[in-house]
Amino acid sequence: MSATQTMSTVPTSSLARTFLPWLLAALLVAVMPQIFGSGFAISLLCRMAIAAVFALSFNMLMGQGGMMDFGHAVYLGLGGFLAMHAMRAANAGWWIPTPALPLVGAFGGVVMAAVGGLVVARSTRTAFAMITMGLAEAIVALVLMLPRLFGGEEGINADRSGGPAVFGWDFGSPIEAYYVVSSWALLAALLMFLFTRTPLGRLSNAVRDNAERVGFLGYDPARVRYLIYIFSGLFAGLAGGLQAINDEIITAANIGSNAAGAVLLMTFIGGTGTFIGPVIGAVLVTLMQMALGTVTDAWQIYNGLIFVIMVLWAPGGISGIILAHAPLVRNGRGRLLLPSYLRTLPGFVLAIAGTVGLCEMAYRLQSIRGGGPRGGNILFLPADPETVAPWVVAAVMTTVGIWLLAVTAPPARGAWMHASGGTQA
Amino acid sequence: MRFVTRAAAAVAVLISTAVSVHADEVIRVGLIDPMSGAFAVAGRLGEQHFRFAIEKANAGPLAGTGKKLELVVLDNEVSPEKSLTVLRKAIDDGVRYVTQGNGSSVAFALSDAIAKHNKREPNRSVLYLNYAAVDPSLTNDKCNWWHFRFDADSDMKMHALTDYLVSQKDVHKAYVFNMDYSFGVAVERGAMSMLKDRRPDLQVVGNERIPMGKVKDFTPYIAKFQAAGADAVVTGNWGPDLSLLVKAATDTGYKGRFFTYYLGSRDVVAEIGMAGKGAAIVAVFYDNIDNPVLKEWASEFEKRYDNTFGSWTAMTSMMMLGQAIKQAGTSDPLAVGKAMSTMTWESPAGAVSVRADNHQVLQPLFIAALDTGTPHVFPDVPLGFRGIGRIDGKDTAMPTTCKFPNAP
Amino acid sequence: MMDQLLLILLNGLVYGLLLFMLSSGLTLIVGMMGVLNFAHASFYMLGAYIAYTLSTTMNFWVALVVAPLIVGVLGAIVEQYGLRAVHKHGHLAELLFTFGLAMIIGEVVQLIWGRMPVPYRVPPSLDFPLFSIGGTAYPAYRMFMVGVSLFMFVVLYAALARTRLGLVVRAALTHPDMVSMLGHNVPRVFTLVFGGGCALAGLAGVIAGNAYQTDPGMALALGAIVFAVVVMGGLGSISGALFASIIIGLVQTVSIGLDMKLHAALGKIGLHVDPAGLFSDVWDISINRAAPVVPFLLLVIILAVNPKGLAGSRSS
User: Domain range holding A415?
Assistant: First the structure.
C-alpha cells in the first residue's frame, strides 16, 4: 500500500482483510471475562492490555524508527503520575470521570516527550541508547527527590471509584475497570496501527533504514525522529493512565530500569519487525512474569535464557518466525518442511527437559540452603537435588538434546531455504 | 503448557487433600513478601518463621477447634504493584488473611488496596496482619480497621530507646544518623523530639541523612561523629547501610556506642563480625530472653531451619490469629477482626495486647547489646545479645491520631 | 572540617580509580567493537565472588592473580561463541545479547553463592591503619586499591602505546577493515580485547569486593554509572576514562557527604533563592539525595551537546 493512496481507492476485500482482525480482537476483548471469570484472570488480562499498549509505543521507536530507547518507562510513569493526581482531584470533587484518565496520561506523556525529545532526537544509535539511559536514571532520582509530587517511596494512590459515575458505573469493580482498560487499549492499538500507514509513519521507517538518504530527499531526519518520539511518548503516557486505573497506585518503581527492561524483553521476544509482534511479546512475558512465578522459582533464569536464545537464533522474535513460515504454509510448500522439522523435535524436547530439570533442581537446592522445605517433587518427578543421580540424568539429557539439535538443525534450515525458493525472508 | 499441567496437578492435589481431610477446616494465610530478588533473604526468613509459628498455633490455640491455618507463600519482590497482583490471586484462591512486613511502601499499598477491596466486595473481605512494617502512619493518619500491626512502630521503639539513652549517665553527646526515606525520616523525627530537653548534660550534636544504599564508605561520617565529640550514634539504618557503618567505625577506631533498630538479624551480625561488640538494639525480641519456652522454641527452630529464631512478630501474629478464630468461633474475617481488636495473649516474653483504637499491638520492648559470653551466640560470630533494659507493653503506648474511616 | 574534606577526597580518589578499572575495559570494548556491553558490571561481580571463594579456600594473593584470569577467560569464551554469532544480526542484537547475559550471570551467581552478601574480607596482612587524619585512622587497604589501579593504568597505557599488539589494537579501534586487510587477525584481536576488558572488570571486583560489600546487587549498583564514565571520557580512550572516572568519583563522593539543602549550597556561592517560594520542592532537595543524578546529568548534557561524546573516535 502506497502511503499516498487514500482509503477509497483500496479494494474493499483488502480493507476487510485489514480490519477483520481488529473486529475479532474487539469481540475477544468483550467476551474474555465470560470465559476467564476469576479476579486474577481479569487482572492479568488488564495487565496484558497495558503491557501491549506500552510495547507497541516502544516499538514505534525501536522497530519502526530504529531508535533504542532505554528510558521509555519514564513516559509511562510520568503519564501515570499525572493520571493519579487527576484521580485524586476527582476524589476531591472535580468532574473527571475515570474513563477520561487515560487522556490525562497521554497528555502527560506527550508533554514530557516533547521536552525529552529536544535533548535526545539529534543523537545516533549508540549515543541515543546511552543518552536515554542517562535521562531515565536522572529522572528516577529526581522523582524520589520530590515527594510532594511523586509520593517518595510510597507513590501516589487514589480511588478510581471515587469520581463521577458514568452510566451508573462507578468503576470500582474489576470487570468495569477491565472494560475501560481494554477498550482504551484496543483504541490505542488501532491508532498506532493507522499511524504506521501515515506519511510520518513511513518516513520513520525510512529514517531507520537510511537516514542519510532521507536527508537528501529533503526531510530532516532529526525532525522526523523528534516527532516519532513525541507520538511514542503520547501512547506510553496513555498506557500509564491505564495502569493508574488498574492499580490505583503509581510509584517511582514504575519508572525504573525494571520496567524499561521488561518492555525491551516483550518487544524483542514478540518481534520488532511486525506490528503485532510487541502484542504477542507483551502477552507472553506478562504471563511468564505473573503466572509462571507462582509455579516455579526458576522463572528469572528462564527469562534470561529465552532472551539469549532468541537473540542468537531468532532475532526476529516470534512474529519473525511466523512470518518466515506463513507464506510457505499458505502456498502449500509447508509440508516440505515437515520431515526435517519433525526430526529436530526429539533434540528440542530433550534439551528443554534437561535444562528445565537442571534449573529447577538448582533453585530447589538454593531454597533448601535458605531453609526451605525438603522433599516434594521437582515438577512431577520425585528427584532429590541433594543426590548426584538426577543431576547426571538432567545433564545427559541436555547434552544429548543439544547434540541432536546441532545435527538436525542445519538440514531443517536447508529445507526451509529450499522451500522458500532459496531466498531469505 | 507446563504451567497448565502443573496448575492442574496442584488443583488435583488440593481437591484430594480437601476431600480426605474433611474434619479440619483449612484457613489459608497468605505471606506477601520478597521471595526472589535482592530482598529474598528477608522474605525467606519470614517464611521459615511463619511455617514454624503456624505449626505452633495449630497445636496451641486452635487445637481441638476443627480448624487449622495453612501458609501460602506469595512473592512480591518488594514491589507495591506486584503485591496487588498476588493479592488478587490470593483472594481468588480463597485466602482471607494476609500478612506482610518487608517495606513500608508495600504496606501502604496493601492497606489501601485491602480497604478498597473490602468496601467493594464485603463478602470476600480480607484481614491484613502487618508483622514488620513500622512506619507510624499506618496506625495513625492512614489507619485502616482491617489492618493490625504486630511490631512496635518506629516512634514506640524510639521512645524506649531514648528513655534508655537518657538513663545512661556516661552518654553526653548523641548523633542522629538515618537513611533518607519515609522510615528513616520517621526515626529521625522521633529521635530529635524525644531527646530534646531530657537531661541538661545530654544533647544532640549532629543530625544527618544518607541516600539509601548508596554510600560505600562511611569513614567520613565517622570522622564527623568524632569531630562533634559524639559518644552515641542513634540510627534506624538496616542492611549494608548498617553493617558498613559499624565496620567503618571499627576500622577507624571510633569508640562511640551504636543504638540501632536492626542490628539483630543474623546476616548483619555475620557481616559486621566482632566489630559489632557493644552495639545495641531496641526490639520486641532478642535471642537471650530468659524463658524456658522461648529457649525451647529457639533451639527447635535452629535445628529445623539452620537459622536463628528472631522474627517474634510472626509468632505473635499467628498465635493471636489462632486465638481470635477460636474466640469468634468462625473463620470469617469480620468476626475474627472484632475479636482481635480487644485480644490479649500471655506470651512467654510478656503480655501482648491489641489496642482497639488503632489496632497497634502493645508488648514488652527490650534494649539489648551484643556481647561475648552470652548463653546463646550467633553461629558465625561468637556474639550474642545481652538484655540491658525492658519496658512493659502498656508503657510503650503512644498517642494516636487514628479515627477509623471504615470501621464496620 | 579540613580533615573530613581530606578523607572525602581520598575516598573519592579510591572510588574513582575503581571506576577507572571498570570503565577502561568497557571503553575499549565499546570503542572498538561498538558493543554496549551490559554484562560488564556482571563480570565485575563474578570477579568479586570468585575471589571470595579462592581467598577462603586458598589465600587472597592467589585470588588476586587467578580470579581476573578466570573472568577474562570466561569473557573470551562469551565473545568467541556468543557475541561473534550475534554480530551478523547487528549492534542492537549484540546489545540485547549482553543484556540477557547480565540477567543470566546475575541468577547463576545467586544459585552458586546464595542471595545473601558473602563475608569476603580484607586479608589480615593488609588490614591495618596506615596513617591518621585528625584522629580517624585510614585503612592501608584503601591505599593498596589505589596502588593496584594506578599500576593497571600504567601497564595498560604502556601496552597500548609501546607494544606491537597495542598498536594493532589502537589501529583496529578506528580502522578495523584496513587492519584486517593488512593481514592481522582482527577477530582474534576482538576476543583479546573483550577478554582483557572483562579481566580488568574482574580485577576491580577482586579488590573492591572485600572493601565494600559482595552481594548479588553489586552489578546493578555500578552498571549505569560506568556507562556515564565511558561516554564522558570518550569511547576508546584510556586516559579519557581515567580522567572521567576520577572526576565522577570525586564529585559523587563529595556530594554524597554533603547533607545540605540546595538553597543553602547556592547561598554559599552567592546565589540567593527563596526556599519557600514556587520551586520550594526543588530548593529543598538535599545535595546528597541529588548526588546520584549528577553523573547522568553530565552524560545527558555532553551527549546532547556533542552526540559524538567527549574525546571519542567513533560515533555509532
Answer: 331-419
**pLDDT, tens digit, for every residue of B44-101?**
888 889 999 999 999 999 888 889 999 988 888 777 878 888 898 889 888 999 999 8
In a domain, A259, yes or no: yes
Choose the mutation target among B2, B85, B126, B302 for the interface with A, i.e. most A CBs under 10 Å.
Answer: B85
Count how many pairs of residues, chain A against chain C, have C-beta atoms within 8 Å: 131
A268 domain-assigned: yes
A144–chain C Cβ distance below 8 A for any pair = yes
Q: Report the distance separating Cα B272 and Cα B243, nearest Å.
A: 5
How many domains, chain B?
A: 2
H-assigned helices in A287-337: 293-295, 299-313, 317-330
- Is the distance from CB of B352 to CB of B316 less than 8 angstroms? yes
Range of the domain at C127: 2-216
Q: Which chain B residues touch A380 with a CB distance below 8 Å?
A: 6, 9
State which residues of chain A have pLDDT below 70.
1-13, 124, 293-294, 370-380, 422-425
Residues 6+ apart with CB under 8 A from A104: A79, A82, A83, A86, A96, A241
Domain assignment present for A377 = yes
Nearest CA-CA distance, residue B177 and chain C, Å? 11
Q: Do B227 and C3 touch (CB under 8 A)?
A: yes
- Cell 506470651, located at residue: B347
Q: What per-residue confidence (pLDDT) applies to B151?
A: 93
- B82 lies in some domain: yes
Give helix A174-197 / helix A221-247 axis angle, nearest 10°: 170
CB of B354 within 8 A of CB of B317? no
How many helical (H) and strand (E) elements, i.e. helices and strands, does chain A have? Answer: 16, 2
Do the Cβ atoms of B267 and C117 come within 8 Å? yes
Which chains form contacts with chain B, at 3 or more CB pairs under 8 Å? A, C
Residues of B in contact with A174 (CB under 8 A): 88
Neighbours of A86 (CB within 10 A): 24
Q: How far apart are CA C25 and CA C192, in angstroms?
A: 11
Burial class from Cβ neighbours inside 10 Å (0-12, 13-18, 19+) for residue B64 reads: exposed
Question: pLDDT tens digit string along C156-169?
Answer: 888 888 888 888 88
Contact C135 B38 (CB under 8 A): no
Q: Is residue C19 part of a domain?
A: yes
Strands B25-33 and B97-100: parallel
The B203-210 sheet, strands edge to edge: B203-210, B173-179, B232-235, B257-260, B280-283, B365-371, B384-391
A314 touches chain C (CB under 8 A): no
Are C316 and A305 inside 8 Å of each other by CB? Answer: no
Please state the ipTM of this predicted complex: 0.81
Instruction: Write the single-letter amino acid at C306.
Output: N
**Which residues contact residue A235 at a Cβ distance below 8 angstroms, ignoring those fewer than 6 apart?**
A53, A56, A57, A60, A106, A109, A188, A191, A192
The domain total for chain C is 1
Asked whether residue A425 is assigned to any structural domain, the reply reads no
Quickly count: other Cβ atoms within 10 Å of residue B366's Cβ.
23
Q: Which residue of C has its CA nearest to B252?
A: C137
In a domain, B405, yes or no: no
State the cell numbers at C284: 529543598
Contact with chain C for residue B208, Cβ under 8 A = yes
Asked if A307's CB is within 8 angstroms of C96's CB, the reply is yes
Between the two ends of chain A, the Cα-to-Cα distance in Å is 19
Q: Give the separation between CA C20 and CA C153, rounded to whole angstroms.
A: 8
Chains that touch A (3 or more CB pairs under 8 A): B, C
Q: Is A40 in the same domain as A115?
A: yes
B182 in contact with chain C, both atoms CB, cutoff 8 A: no
- Interface contact C286-B209, CB threshold 8 A: yes
Contact B81 A251 (CB under 8 A): yes
pLDDT tens digits for range A117-143:
887 777 767 777 778 888 888 888 788
